Amino acid sequence: MIHHYPKLFESDPVQLARAERLRDKSYEFTQFLVNVLGVTDVGASFPHKVTYHPSCHGTRLLGVKNEPMALMSNVRGLEFVPLPFAEDCCGFGGTFAVKMADISGAMVSEKVDHVKETEAEVLVGLDMACLMNIAGNLRYRGEQVRVMHLAEVLAEGAGLA
Amino acid sequence: MSAQKGRATVKERAELALNDEFLVKAVKFTTERLRNGKKNASAEHGNWDEWRERGRQIRLHTIAHLDYYLNLFVENARANGVHVHFADKGEDAVAIAMDIAQRKAAKTVVKSKSMVSEELHLNHALEQIGVEAIETDLGEYIIQLAGEMPSHIVIPAIHKNRYQIADLLSEVAGEKLEADTTVLAGFVRKKLREKFLEADIGMTGCNFAIAETGSMVLFENEGNARMVTTVPKTQITLMGMERIIPSFEDLEVMATLLPRSATGQKLTMYMSAITGPKRTADADGPEEMHIIIVDNGRSLQLGDPEFQELLNCIRCGACLNACPVYRHIGGHAYGSTYSGPIGAVLTPALNKNVAEWDDIANASSLCGACYEACPVKIPLHEMLIYLRRRKVETGNGKAVETAGMKGFAALTGSSAAMKAALAIGKIGQRLVVRGGEIRTKLGPLKGWNSYRVTPSLPRRSFRDRWEKLNREVDADRPQMAPDMKRRMEQIVKERGKGGGGHGGH
């Protein structure tokens, strides 16, 4: 979102400059850890079977692809299982989930089917909206899969939470 | 199409599709095959993003100088002996085609696949003057028999499985045909041979029109377009005015992008370039050739900074195959000739009537898979937002939504208002929260909670904890290490240049 602000202020040079400054110093969590801090191993240990949903806006708009993988690959005991059709949208899409509830519902149901296929204990992601959506469907169906932000995995694995 | 009649909105039509198990299964099966094919073919070819960028540049350049290249194309086509016609509106194009058919006293027209023809509903018009129009592309033939619209740009009958197709063809055959693809294709092949031989006119679409030579180029897999363009004495080609590319050199790039993006093929089985009618030394080909150049709303995009790139589309269907919404609802739910992400933008843009931009632009989660799949990098996910915005800006938005957005802006625009709202929410939610979850399907929660549960507001939110957290962080904030600082400055510098891996076009 912040990375789209400059577009909104194209005709206002003062605000545009501010929007660009904000954009330039804003980072997605894993991009900040890996690309700025240069950290790929936080010393965490998380002995669980984990799958990962790469969010559309994270991967396609922000270009977050390798960073979360680098971080997860260095977590002790973490068993990574790839999610089938991982790149498919989970169906959240903001107001889409309400306006086109049935289409969105079909999308999130399919996403959860794929999560179940992996038999993972934990679904990890980087976008709270996707996670709320997927967790909502998992709970609705009475599934016990934990849904966590990667930051939570790292914090729990490092004994911080 | 018949089942879709009377269903006015995307939502209503989508509901029909979502409950059609056969349709969803058939669409998923084929789109998966196509998108995997594309992924493999583009990876195998290598440097795919550079090819895409090259394709985009060719399309941008051509459309920016469309008047020049169109003129050049028409001059060259005429010099080759082609009759070139311009049609401003769809009905003009239909009238021109009917006029030719009547002049030739045509009884039958064989057609190869053309989306423009579908856009014009030409078959219907020809039938009205007693001309039989026969689709010869297998998929088009099937949907013609079913009386439907194509539900995919490249695979018109994608929504049907082989059992449904066997039923349709059995009716034509007058006997029960086995639901075996070889048997079915064999039957159609035999049936169509007769039609090719007796047809008075062959009608085609046009994948690309080459300005420098006045040639038209067709990509196909079944050989039917070859038959259509060689057997009948008269050929009519329908061509969207934006199909132009400057030269055969540019065709090389397009021929690299189109089949790979459409079906994952390196090249289609047949690629024909036709430069004028039959010459004396030619063994076959039409004696008379017409090209009808169709505008029908296309020129309205010229000069529109938000939608001009729509004219860059090469109709490969990759955005449909990548789209998670299309995957679940198929093409007919979009309610128009063009479906999927490109259809959701193209249909309203061609009509240019903002008030009638129904909810078609809302049928997207804006995930960007369409843009990622597009071989000429059309930012469809952004165009969908432009459509939504224009509808609201012209006063055609929904009052409830506008009020909701204003309310949301008021809350999120003020820290105090947000804090107050959360406090009220925390009290209010006690009525509906059970075990940290909200499951009621009342009011605005109905859509969401029909498929999910809603998390409750936490007892202590991040905002509540922030003051303390901030103090803790401030207390032992270390100096940033020099190498970190360097990396950060480097990233900021790159972002300033427009890099940084976001947006990306």
TrEMBL record, chain B:
What keywords were assigned to this record? Answer: 4Fe-4S, Electron transport, Iron, Iron-sulfur, Metal-binding, Repeat, Transport
Domain of life of the source: Bacteria
Q: Record keywords: Cell membrane included?
A: no
Which SUPFAM superfamilies does its entry note?
alpha-helical ferredoxin, NagB/RpiA/CoA transferase-like
Domain 4Fe-4S ferredoxin-type per the UniProt entry, residue ranges: 303-334
**GO MF terms, alphabetically ordered:** 4 iron, 4 sulfur cluster binding; metal ion binding
Q: PROSITE patterns, alphabetically? A: 4FE4S_FER_1, 4FE4S_FER_2
Q: Which InterPro entries does the record associate with it?
A: 4Fe4S_Fe-S-bd, 4Fe4S_Fe_S_CS, FTHF_cligase-like_sf, Helical_ferredxn, LUD_dom, LutB/LldF, LutB_C, NagB/RpiA_transferase-like
Its recorded name reads LutB/LldF family L-lactate oxidation iron-sulfur protein
